[in-house]
Design goal:
The complex is a heterodimer of chains A (about 300) and B (about 350).
Chain A lengths: L7 H27 L7 H19 L2 H25 L4 H19 L25 H5 L4 H19 L1 H11 L1 H6 L4 H27 L11 H11 L4 H23 L6 H5 L1 H14 L22
Helix pairs in contact in A: 1-6, 1-9, 1-10, 1-11, 2-3, 2-4, 2-9, 2-10, 3-4, 3-9, 6-7, 6-11, 10-11, 10-13
Chain B lengths: L1 E5 L5 H25 L4 H9 L1 H4 L3 H27 L7 H19 L7 H27 L3 H21 L35 H19 L1 H11 L1 H6 L4 H25 L13 H11 L4 H25 L3 H23 E5 L6
Antiparallel strand pairs in B: 1-2
Helix pairs in contact in B: 1-2, 1-14, 2-13, 4-8, 4-9, 4-11, 4-12, 4-13, 5-6, 5-7, 5-11, 5-12, 6-7, 6-11, 8-9, 8-13, 12-13, 12-14, 13-14
The chains are: A mainly alpha (about 300), B mainly alpha (about 350).
């Protein structure tokens, strides 16, 4: 193997692009989980977003419309989950799984005519001055708009949770829904909004895969990204900026792994390709054991159904 | 205004009526989906649910029914035990793959020797492979309190990569001039899981599925372990006071479901599939989750649900051939079924009361 054949600058530059899908899906799921709901359907919403975004952008010629429709598709699908878990009080784990299974089927059904079609070219933004900085410019400041939008979403979620009344209410619902209900907050309505936001973010993340990262449509193209996003939330201990750090670390590892494949490392490609999943498992183990147990930070009502008895 | 009132215990009537209602609703919603695809909905539903059992070419399809239902039932019986106890092994697909790899490797190691002992050894190896793979999330759960849902699911992707590595590497057929995939086990009599009665689709995997149903039924209704499983699921606190060992429960439920999924993988690779190939797995491990819920996590229910789900597979293939309905539509159809089932569960667990607005 020839390590010097890897262009490290290029590797760092593609890190942010590789991280953006799971960053988007992860930050959405973080909001959902902070409201006390566990939606395991991220994978299904991502892949539905991927095909919706791809199909709309190919048909309309507009990348923006593609992303918007992906967000809408993700939110619509998540509201099916919301309806079942919030009004019909179904088990969240099982319903989330159903959402993933349904989303995978639905997406390949929708994607029938789109296999092998080339996607649109998404232009990179060249931020004036900043992108001309040597080394740092190409790494940080020469990406497409979604990379920066995803960071803005993280910042927005952080500020919302930390500084606003809405964030406080959301956290209250996630920590103790009975108390929040007693105070007069509409637990179910708040959770539905959080679920829809999570769905929209997952849809955007999926569309980023099919519109920018790959860019084309293949069945099952998310390949577990939704599950990695779920693990990312645990890694982040339910804190927004840590989702960003985790996503970029993970993006870096993914890109490194792909570069090692290309550089002709002396082990079969398949073993390198399983490394992202193994690393995710390892991270989960580290986060869940020891003193700084992630579970301590988990929202207290995570995964519990709310049913007002009075 | 509609109000839900929690029942002290789930309604027995609705517990068994909801799966039937869910199937009917799925047929309606599926019919709408087929209509949206520009197909005749009535013809599509008839092709999927009626023709394979009673139609003109039913003699061909009926055999396929058991071939598909066997692995689904085998896997779902194992999963249901864990689900009952609140232990979520959703990586059965990975355990299924590992069982196939382990079992096929043992069989291929003996090639071309002939002996009656080879096939039982392969079954054993398949069970061991599945169990070992399921032990990873189980041990991480009991030792480090790691979420078993995410770990077991992520291991599916690892197993898929391992499958590809095996099909291209160590298990590749040395006589096949570079083509990926192992030797065909169906052409190796000692290792093949052939049909027991011609035309029925009955193979050892189906026999194992029936045995698993019986054992699971006895275990859950007559054995202390079964009581512990039910107790842990219904009231984890009571279970802890009652002396249920949570570690043993996790290890048992994950191990048993892993072993059954691994065996299902072995029966498939030695029988209907024939060889280890890159795309050997076809999603039985995930569909089995639907089967487990549709069967109400009850072994007899799972038997019926497995047959029904097998029917959607076969009917789906028939609809693909005659009506050009895409295969993916069946997958969406199966997902829809689980949605309806989970949604309707509210009827079993709650009473629906109509109250006047404003009375709180």
């Amino acid at each position: 193997m020839d390590l010097s054949s890897i262009n490290w600058l290029l590797l760092l530059a593609s890190l942010m692009v590789a991280a953006t899908p799971i960053l988007l899906a992860g930050i959405g799921e973080l909001v959902v989980e902070r409201s006390g709901v566990l939606n395991l359907g991220v994978e299904g919403m991502m892949i539905t977003g991927a095909i919706s975004g791809f199909a709309i952008s190919v048909n309309t010629g507009s990348v923006t419309l593609g992303f918007v429709s992906a967000a809408l598709a993700g939110a619509a699908l998540s509201l099916v989950f919301g309806l079942l878990t919030q009004f019909l009080l179904s088990n969240q784990v099982a319903t989330g799984l159903a959402l993933t299974l349904f989303g995978l089927g639905l997406s390949s059904l929708m994607g029938q005519g789109y296999v092998g079609i080339k996607g649109l070219n998404v232009p990179d933004l060249h931020l004036p001055l900043l992108s001309d900085i040597p080394i740092l410019g190409p790494i940080f400041f020469q990406h497409d708009a979604m990379v920066y939008i995803s960071i803005l979403i993280v910042a927005g979620v952080w500020a919302m949770l930390k500084y606003t009344r809405a964030g406080l209410i959301l956290r209250a619902v996630g920590e103790n829904h009975d108390a929040a209900h007693a105070l007069g907050y509409k637990v179910i309505r708040i959770r539905l909004m959080a679920i829809a936001f999570g769905g929209a973010c997952a849809g955007l993340g999926g569309a980023y895969l099919s519109l920018v990262r790959v860019p084309q449509w293949t069945e099952g193209m998310t390949a577990g990204a939704g599950w990695i996003a779920l693990a990312l939330v645990v890694f982040a201990s339910w804190k927004p900026w840590r989702v960003l750090i985790g996503a970029y670390l993970f993006g870096g590892l993914t890109v490194l792994q792909l570069n090692l494949q290309a550089a002709g490392m002396k082990i079969p490609v398949e073993y390198l390709a399983m490394s992202p999943y193994l690393i995710t498992i390892l991270v989960l183990v580290i986060m869940s054991s020891g003193r700084g147990r992630a579970a301590l930070n988990a929202p207290a009502e995570l995964g519990r159904s709310f049913h007002a008895t009075a | 205004m509609i109000r839900l009132e929690k029942r002290p215990t789930p309604s027995r009537f609705w517990t068994w009526a909801t799966p039937i209602l869910a199937v009917l609703l799925t047929m309606v919603a599926g019919g709408l989906m087929f209509a949206a695809l520009g197909k005749n909905p009535f013809l599509a539903i008839k092709t999927i649910f009626y023709d394979p059992v009673l139609g003109e070419f039913a003699f061909y399809y009926r055999g396929q029914l058991l071939v598909k239902a066997g692995p689904l039932i085998l896997i779902a019986v194992g999963l249901a035990m864990g689900f009952k106890a609140g232990i979520w092994n959703i990586g059965a697909e990975g355990q299924y793959i590992m069982g196939a790899i382990f079992g096929a490797a043992v069989g291929l190691a003996f090639y071309p020797a002939e002996s009656w002992v080879i096939f039982p050894l392969m079954v054993l190896a398949g069970a061991v492979g599945g169990t070992l793979w399921a032990m990873i999330p189980a041990i991480l759960k009991v030792r480090f309190n790691t979420n078993e849902i995410l770990v077991s699911l992520l291991l599916v992707y690892v197993a898929e990569q391992l499958l590809a590595a095996m099909a291209l590497g160590p298990l590749r057929n040395p006589d096949a001039a570079g083509f990926p995939g192992s030797r065909n086990l169906q052409q190796y009599p000692s290792a093949s899981n052939s049909e027991l009665f011609a035309g029925t689709g009955m193979h050892w995997g189906v026999v194992a599925a029936f045995i698993a149903v019986i054992f699971a039924y006895i275990l859950l209704s007559r054995h202390l372990m079964g009581f512990h499983i039910r107790l842990a699921g219904q009231s984890p606190r009571a279970a802890r006071f009652g002396g249920v060992n949570p570690t043993a429960l996790v290890v048992f439920c994950m191990g048993a479901s892993g072993a059954l999924a691994g065996m299902a993988g072995l029966f498939e690779v030695a029988g209907p599939a024939g060889q280890i190939s890159i795309d050997f797995n076809s999603g039985y491990g995930f569909t089995a989750i639907i089967v487990a819920f549709l069967g109400r996590l009850h072994p007899i229910g799972i038997l019926l649900a497995g047959l029904l789900m097998a029917l959607t597979y076969i009917g789906g293939e028939a609809a693909q051939a005659t009506l050009q309905i895409p295969a993916a539509a069946i997958q969406a159809f199966q997902g829809m079924l689980l949605f309806f089932l989970l949604g309707l569960d509210v009827l079993a667990n709650y009473r629906i009361r109509l109250t006047r607005e404003g009375v709180a």
